[in-house]
Amino acid sequence: MSIQPTALITGANKGIGLSIAKGLGKLGYEVWIGSRDADRGRLAVEELEAVGIDARVLMLDVSDLSSVKAAAAFLQRQIGALDVLVNNAGIVLGSSTPPSEQPMDELKAVYEVNVFGAIRVTQAFLRLLKRAPNARIVMMSSGLGSLGLVTNPESIYSTANLLAYNSSKTALNAVAVAFAKELEPLGIRVNAVEPGSVATDLNGNKGALTPDEGAISAIMLATIGPDGPTGKFFGVDGPQPW
């Protein structure tokens, strides 16, 4: 008898997160929709269930340690192991503010979600991940977090100079490498993802790709085999420069 694999995607009630949940669900995963808003989480689950996907809501605010710990404790009572964790939750603040003028409280708020949130969630759910054979962790980064891309005049990312968001994604890449080094002996693969220029609420829906297209690389890394890469930065067209 086969055991249904499980996946948790944070910030999955809309956008790329919802598309990742849909893609993994279609591959047979039981998907848990991490959402800090109960109503939005339920709507996302209803949308997934309508196309035959096994989906559940997990109340989770990645910026709140108590919320993260409570969510981890709840999920430990519901499942035996967690096969995939996608740290997708993220925010943008001050996108039109010059770096020299961005308030420190905005920087702290962005890091609280984009960097510390991913660390909190990974640490809290690690017990469940260790119980799965060959668990996978995906950090949803951005081309804006690549120092190589933002300094390349030919890259579409070179003109977006967002102090808080860009640097938070650069930091997230470093977080992915740190966890990858620790967890590789346990068979857990950890990678960062560059989804592409995706139209979402974060950018006013101005991206060139749909959320479903932006989810492709994350789904690929969430389902790699035991010999797959770890501690790397990937986009849909392959490895990305750090």
Describe the structure.
The protein has 242 residues and is of the alpha/beta class. It is 41% helix and 15% strand. The protein has 9 helices and 8 strands. The chain has helices at 15-26, 38-49, 65-78, 104-114, 116-130, 147-150, 163-183, 211-214, 216-222, and strands at 6-10, 30-35, 55-59, 84-87, 136-140, 189-194, 233-235, 238-239. It has an 8-stranded mixed beta sheet with strand order 3-2-1-4-5-6-7-8, sandwiched between helices. Strand 7 (233-235) and strand 8 form a beta hairpin. Helix 3 (65-78) packs parallel to helix 5 and helix 4 packs parallel to helix 7. The longest helix has 21 residues, at 163-183. The protein is globular, with a radius of gyration of 17 Å. 48% of the residues are buried.
Task: Kindly summarize this structure in a few lines.
With 242 residues, this protein is α/β, with parallel strands linked by helices.
